[in-house]
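Colleagues,

For the teaching module next term, I've prepared a clean inverse folding example: a structure given as tokens, and then the sequence designed for it. I'd like students to try predicting residues themselves before seeing the answer, so please don't circulate the second half yet.
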């Protein structure tokens, strides 16, 4: 039988804005760091979460995620576990500037990758993203039992995890994701059962000034 002491929250935080003036779809590429605005967003997320009873921190190994976690880790004086399971989704278009120049996709060599948007055929299947994210979330939940955990990840993995836990279809229109920069998606569990899903945007007032990350 579960009790209130078994209530655990796992917060999924999307990283802040990335310094990416060229509009590159950076995906898992190394060397992409937070912009000055992105670091301010990270501070906002840390301020929002800093008063919570957080006992466990997890980050994607990519630089932008680790840099988003830094202010919170410093505030809480907690170590950060790097977990490949919460990394950005694999994408065959990494390195292109399709956000600014979508005509690149008219090149016939890309056509075989565009045949199945549900899978998707250009990258890691949504089901695989959901499985690795949910495994990481369960481990974080168990590590923080009765308290709270934070995982800093990326837009597509966070949104896919949310859809999975909400028992909704995984394929979707990326333009309709509710997962802004430095946002916090909170999964509350009572024991092993999901109790609720919450969402907050601590850096919402900074978003109109953001250049917008290409990739996530």
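(Answer key — instructors only)
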């Amino acid at each position: 039988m579960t009790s209130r002491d078994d209530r655990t929250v796992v917060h999924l935080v999307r990283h802040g804005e990335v310094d990416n003036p060229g509009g590159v779809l950076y995906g898992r590429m190394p060397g992409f760091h937070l912009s000055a605005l992105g670091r301010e967003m990270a501070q906002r997320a840390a301020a929002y979460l800093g008063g919570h009873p957080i006992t466990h921190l997890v980050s994607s190994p990519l630089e932008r995620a680790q840099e988003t976690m830094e202010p919170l880790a410093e505030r809480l004086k907690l170590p950060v576990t790097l977990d490949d399971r919460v990394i950005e989704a694999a994408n065959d278009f990494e390195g292109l500037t399709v956000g600014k120049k979508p005509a690149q996709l008219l090149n016939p060599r890309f056509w075989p990758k565009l045949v199945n948007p549900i899978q998707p055929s250009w990258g890691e299947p949504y089901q695989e993203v959901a499985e690795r994210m949910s495994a990481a979330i369960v481990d974080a939940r168990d590590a923080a039992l009765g308290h709270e955990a934070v995982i800093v990840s990326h837009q597509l993995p966070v949104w896919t995890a949310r859809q999975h836990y909400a028992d909704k279809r995984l394929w979707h229109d990326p333009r309709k994701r509710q997962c802004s920069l430095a946002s916090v998606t909170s999964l509350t569990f009572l024991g092993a059962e999901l109790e609720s899903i919450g969402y907050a945007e601590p850096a919402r007032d900074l978003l109109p000034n953001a250049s917008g990350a290409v990739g996530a």
